[in-house]
Amino acid sequence: MGHSRLRIGIDSTWYPLDFGAQQSYVNGFTQELLMDVATYSGIEFECMEANWDSLFNGLQKKKYDAVLSSLAPYDFHLARYDFSDKLLDLGPVLLVPVGSRHLSLDSMRQELVGLLVGDAAVLQLQKYSNVILRTYASIPELLDAVVQGEISGAVLNQILAVNYVRDLYVGKLMITGAPMTDAGLRLVTLKGENEHIMKMFNKSLQFFRKKKKLRTLLQKWELS
Predict the structure, then answer these.
(1) How many CB atoms lie within 10 A of CB 62?
(2) Distance (Å, rounded) from C-alpha 118 to C-alpha 102?
(3) Which residues pair with 114 in a beta bridge?
(4) What is the CATH topology of the domain spanning 4-89+183-220?
């Protein structure tokens, strides 16, 4: 597919996100995915460590050609940047007890649903006017409340939810449904620059999804 080079600025702490114990897995996933894309597409990636507070300033000054970021592709951002397809889903998901009859928020009329204090997911939950919300100070308190039957379900960032369901709450809680928002990690470039590379990058992601390679990679790094 030809050969192109792309310098990518990466803040390996992913601020303002907090992946907790999954941070190293997210880093491993993104590094391996970039290597796979390079092999498939012929794009040569040079990853450059960047601080969260200077990430986009470095992009503007062309210190690097792109960044990996959770910045959302809202209209006012689309005026300045081009965004790739999602590399990794970051939206909130619904957790319920294993065997629950509730598989979506739509079925939880007048049911208690928990979330963390200050979680932006509350904006999504406001769409479900029949759901009664209860907030919790920590993830263990939130998830214990589901297990103990105090609430019918909990809403939590997908990466954190996967971690807890795979570990401390295995066999007790399950994730049901897709993420509630389009939040995710994406490759971001300045508007109108590196369009050819962005197309090749997206084509690679689409191919990996079709061949289930992306799913396999997510499972390897315990992110799905």
Answers:
(1) 10
(2) 25
(3) 134, 154
(4) D-Maltodextrin-Binding Protein; domain 2 (3.40.190)
Q: Return residue ranges of the chain for CATH 3.40.190.10.
A: 4-89+183-220, 92-176
pLDDT in tens, 161-214: 999 999 999 999 999 999 999 999 999 999 999 999 999 999 999 999 999 999
Tell me the CA distances in angstroms from 133 to 87, 124, 200, one per residue in order. Answer: 31, 12, 43
Using one digit for the tens of pLDDT, what is the confidence trace for 46-85? 999 999 999 999 999 999 999 999 999 999 999 999 999 9
State how beta strands 66-69 and 184-190 pair: antiparallel
Q: What top-level class would CATH report for the domain 92-176?
A: alpha beta
CA triple 188-191-192, angle to 5 deg: 115
Three-state secondary structure call for residue 111: coil
Burial class, 153, CB count within 10 angstroms (exposed 0-12 / middle 13-18 / buried 19+): buried
pTM confidence score: 0.87
Residue 59, H or E segment: helix 55-60
- Answer yes or no: are the C-beta atoms of 150 and 178 closer than 8 Å: no
Q: For residue range 163-178, what is the model confidence (pLDDT) as tens digits?
A: 999 999 999 999 999 9
How many Å is the maximal CA-CA distance in the chain? 57
